[in-house]
Amino acid sequence: MWDPASYLHYSGLRARPFHDLIARVPAGSARRVTDLGCGPGNLTVELAKRWPGAVLEASDSSPEMVEAARERGVDAQVLDVRDWQPSLDTDVVVSNAVLQWVPGHQDLLRRWAGRLPAGAFLAVQVPGNFGAPSHRLTRELAGSPEWSSRLGALVLREDDAVATPQAYAGLLADEGCAVDAWETTYMQRLSGERAVLEWITGTALRPVRAALDDADWDTFREQLAPRLDAAYPPRADGTTWFEFRRIFFVAQTPA
Q1: What does R_g of the chain's alpha carbons equal in angstroms?
Q2: Which of 4, 34, 180, 207 is spaced 20 to 30 Å from 222 by Cα?
Q3: Region at 251 (left for phi over 0; alpha for psi -120 to 50; beta for the rest)
Q4: What is the DSSP annotation of 149-182?
Q5: Gap between the Cα atoms of 216 and 246, Å rounded
């Protein structure tokens, strides 16, 4: 279950990679723009501003997120990204921080590249932070004797979550696309107590939360918090530096 309020707690920092991605999409106009994994819709509305003449299509697998998006006026639908099929007029597809949740999403990318109209743009951003202390410590705790029977298989591993920019570029180039791929490491300055824990609660810890009752969830967080504070020590002013790597690619289908 996704919690829109938790996800939006750091909405400004979470939005920055989205804007960096969209800035590299050179489409001047579009007939249809699709947001796959629209979340609470706060960024979907930015797509409407960028391409005001386009039909805006939005979906998310989370009913809670779709409800939040609809409250913002986005006509979002509940849909698993694996079931999406492009319309004949789809000129821009955006998938922002979604595909890391989809094992084998490379096959999806091949399928989309083959079915999108000629000259369409596919813009994707995925976190590349699965080897960072935040995720490594979560995996270690989830795999400990106390938690492994319930959580050992739930937490994403670095080796099966996302590929490298080069791998994505090669995959889409093999489908005949022109590809722009890159990565960026953001130095995010988080505020408040247990800042890194609060950050990953809105994303990486979602499978953990879904697997535990309230009491066990509180216990897991209490055990994880000091580990994260040791890896990401708060500054004297109460803020915490959180290094976050993200992977981007924009592919245009062949004419």
Answers
A1: 19
A2: 4
A3: beta
A4: HHHTTTSPPHHHH---HHHHHHHHHTTT-EEEEE
A5: 31
The SS3 assignment for 49 reads helix
Distances (CA, A) of 103 to 84, 97, 160, 238: 16, 14, 7, 37
Per domain, the residue ranges of the chain are 4-252
Residues 163, 134, 141: CA angle, nearest 5 degrees: 105
Per-residue pLDDT band for 156 (boundaries 50, 70, 90) equals low
* 143 has pLDDT over 50: yes
Is residue 18 within 8 A of residue 39, CB to CB? The reply is no
Longest dimension (CA), the chain: 56
- Kindly report, residue by residue over 108-119, the tens digit of the pLDDT: 999 999 999 999
pLDDT tens profile 25-71: 999 999 999 999 999 999 999 999 999 999 999 999 999 999 999 99
**Whether this model's pTM surpasses 0.70:** yes
How does the average pLDDT of the chain come out, rounded? Answer: 92
Residue 91, helix vs strand vs coil: strand
One-character DSSP codes across 102-124: STTHHHHHHHHHHHSPTT-EEEE
Q: Which tokens is 221 given?
A: 């967080």
3-state secondary structure of 185: strand
Span 4-252 CATH architecture = 3-Layer(aba) Sandwich (3.40)
